[in-house]
Amino acid sequence: MTLELFAPCPRGLEPVLLEELRALGAQELAEHRAGVAFRGSLELAYRACLWSRVASRVLLTLSRFSAPDPDALYAGIHAVPWAEHLSPRGTLSVHADCHNNAAIAHSGFAALRVKDAVVDRLRAASGARPSVDPADPDLRLRLFLNGERATLYLDLAGEALHRRAYRFAGGRAPLKENLAAGLLLLAGWPALAAEGRPLLDPMCGSGTFLVEAALIAADIAPGLQREAFAFERWRGHDAATWARLQGEARERAGQGRQAASPPIVGYDADAAAIARARDNVRRAGRGRLVRLEQRELSRAGDRVPDEAGLLLVNPPYGRRIGEVEALIPLYAALGDLLKQRFGGWSAHVLTGNRELAGYIGLRAARRHVVYNGSIECRLLAYPIEARREPAPGAATATDFENRLRKNLRHISRWARRVGVTCYRVYDADIPEYAVAVDRYEGWVHVQEYAPPASVDPSDARRRLRRVLAVIPDLLGVGAQDVFLKVRRRQRRGAQYEKIASSGDLRQVHEGPHRLLVNLRDYLDTGLFLEQRQTRALIAELAPGRRFLNLFCYTAAATVYAAAGGARATTSVDLSATYLDWARRNLALNGFTGARHALLRTDCSAWIEACRERFGLIYLNPPTFSRSKAMRGTLDVQRDHAWLIRAAAGLLEPDGVLLFATGARRFKLDPSALPGLAIEEISRACLPPDFSRRPHAHRVWRITRG
């Protein structure tokens, strides 16, 4: 008997599934959106459930009919001879999908009408009625209602076929097993595996590519480890045929396990991911044949097999602007790795972000659109030329690399001598490579200054790729430890916004102090490196004085004042986020309690109302600021004289006010500051690593005349 069947699959894999079903013996195949319709015997349907690596389910068509309204739907279902499929005392579940039907819009209502029709027919014939069991039924039904056309299917698989029974923990964003298998088929893995060629996933996560590759290479049916299929409790089940097919699959698996296996290797920088992958590989029975190792992406080419094979990788895509920019170094490092160490290999990269794919720096020979859930992705094929580039340590010198290497050699010696662990290495020294590179101990923070409109965007991306490709090796960090931000030109009055929400605070050291930085979420990290000397000056001036930090940001300056011996400190800022950060910085260094006040308020209004006096004040306002909680806007050029006069009014007779700004083209107006002694001390306050940008941080020492 020829059956009408349908196998759904991830979108984009329909051609792969069609060829797979054809090889199993299916007839009259036709591609549909997210699936393939075909015809064949019950044995073929069983084979598809057992052997299809790509299908999500195998559905047997029970009935097609017109259902313009609920009564017609009920009648169409009632007409099916249900005694052939389900015992009157059995259980069932119904899943319904409804589209474009004016009278039946709710899938839950449609499923209820299907259930009623099945139950009523069986009860009328036998006096008994089946019950509903959504978790573990004897019969699983699926209704698809498109307009007035209804199609009722019997779900032969039950639990989705992508659940292979080897993966318990998938990690943060695992690929479904059937999508991973389909991508391996698209990448040509079966032919490469037959030749004994290697497979490498340098960012393997929970190891799904690796397990599916091992199952393909050993000719192991993906459904062989499942406990049961839904059709085994169906009244139309042919137990003898099913037992024979299982026996054939076990025999093939035994032969495959004894055959030589191609090298299958997975790396990941995350130890927890490697542990999950190892568990999954073991449960799949391939533990001795898949090699797993915790390894940074930059080291994925350290021991490349002599014979070229397939490199398949699914790097993170990023869903928000900040996440996307943070991933650019990773994609650039991946492209550099492919070009330098994998000559002759076939590299395939799955990405859901075309912008990020551009930073790989290679031209894709083929692009195949597939969907990872609801995310439109592309499997990009990069046939790497069969020649090896120099290893990263011997990369061809460029002006940028030479300058970065020279700067690093000079600045790192100075940093070691003075005990500085966070410093600037490069600051747009070469105009074409307009980036700032800051080391934060084991991490690197890169800021790209957005190029002017006259620069070709493709040229800018190419240069940035080169920057990001060489930084990990030259600075001795992993690609995942490089964080990129883009400083776009702002309209006057605009503010830089938060670009991510990771809350990823990391501890760094500045001298004896411990401070928290966030390299992901903001354009600025929470620690202004150019203010390092100014903070040291504050510590020198602080002993015995009451210290006031206006626009305190994360209160790094307050930490210095407290450590320097300030009698008390007050830090004022309008941002609750920054004040919480400031509180944590102070506590990290042992400064808590009433002596160290943190005030959340508009600094401008607070200065006017304050009646206290302070021996040392640090006034470092933002270039521009606005907030719903403020009375208006703050423009440092327009408002600096008023701010300085107001802050100076809070000084004790022998007090010192340090006014600082990083505003470009700022001009202090002494004529608007009568009665004050003003001395610019910017040169003394500029650290050596910022000597190429003298206007990055300007400071004036102000006292009452």
**How is the biggest beta sheet arranged?**
8 strands, mixed
Number of domains: 4
Helix content: 25-40%
CATH architecture of the largest domain: 3-Layer(aba) Sandwich
Beta-sheet strand percentage? 25-35%
- Over the alpha carbons, how many angstroms does the gyration radius reach? 33 Å
Tell the overall outline. Answer: elongated
Arithmetic mean of pLDDT: 90
Low-confidence stretches: 387-397, 490-497
What is the total tally of β strands? 30
At the fourth CATH level, what is the homologous superfamily of the largest domain? Vaccinia Virus protein VP39
Description of the structure:
- It contains 19 helices and 30 strands.
- The longest helix is centred in the middle third of the chain and has 21 residues, at 321-341.
- The relative contact order is 0.06.
- The protein has four domains: 3-155, 2-Layer Sandwich (VC0802-like); 177-383, 3-Layer(aba) Sandwich (Rossmann fold); 392-487, Transcription Regulator spoIIAA; 505-704, 3-Layer(aba) Sandwich (Rossmann fold), CATH 3.40.50.
- It is α/β, with parallel strands linked by helices.
- A hairpin with a 2-residue loop joins strand 17 and strand 18 (443-449).
- It has an eight-stranded mixed β-sheet with strand order 2-3-1-4-8-7-5-6. The chain has a seven-stranded mixed β-sheet with strand order 11-10-9-12-13-15-14.
Observed structural traits:
705 residues, alpha/beta, VC0802-like, Rossmann fold, Transcription Regulator spoIIAA, eight-stranded mixed sheet, elongated
